[in-house]
Design a protein that fits this description.
single chain; alpha+beta; Bit1; four-stranded mixed sheet
Length: about 180
């Protein structure tokens, strides 16, 4: 069994209305569920995270309400749906003492999502596409309003997507910054 070289963090979204201690507990429950559901000795990313990295990132996931047709459908549920739609492995926890409402959702994130800027000169990092173009190709970014930077540089965009781990990581890089710590 080969352990992955990338650093991982377990991100979690928790319901905002819980107390701080309950947010941590619900996150923990969901993390245990992730290990039970996804692991069983086969998920090398989880094994690497749980044995070496062990970093928790607990974010405010907003409201919880399972009534999908309602205007009050929970933002925690909407965020869980985003993960499912983008085929990101996740696990959720429903608290029996709160009428089985969704209280936490967790998912593993690799360093190609969160290491966007170097902390030290020799650090490995995965810059945003515009910085990648500038650093790798010495290209200054000027595009016409009707064309995106990705469309203006398709070959480099494909290379950059490979560097950051593909479209899934690109989605996470765009989505995660909207959250605040819980």
């Amino acid at each position: 069994m080969e352990i992955q070289k990338l650093e991982y963090r377990m991100y979690g979204l928790v319901a905002y209305q819980l107390s701080d201690i309950q947010k941590g507990i619900q996150y923990g429950h969901s993390t245990v569920e992730y290990g039970l559901e996804k692991n069983f000795g086969k998920d090398l990313d989880y094994i690497k995270w749980s044995t070496i990295d062990k970093t928790f990132i607990i974010l405010d996931g907003g409201s919880t309400n399972d009534n999908e047709g309602s205007i009050d459908y929970g933002s925690l549920q909407k965020n869980r749906d985003f993960l499912a739609k983008n085929e990101i492995k996740f696990s959720e926890f429903r608290e029996p003492d709160l009428n089985n409402c969704l209280t936490a959702v967790v998912f593993l994130v690799d360093e190609r999502v969160f290491k966007r800027y170097p902390l030290f000169i020799r650090d490995v990092y995965y810059p945003d596409f515009d910085v990648y173009l500038k650093e790798t190709y010495q290209l200054n970014i000027f595009t016409h309003n009707s064309i995106s930077i990705e469309d203006a540089h398709p070959k480099q965009y494909k290379e950059w997507l490979e560097l950051i781990g593909g479209e899934t990581n690109h989605q996470l890089r765009s989505w995660l910054p909207k959250f605040k710590l819980a």
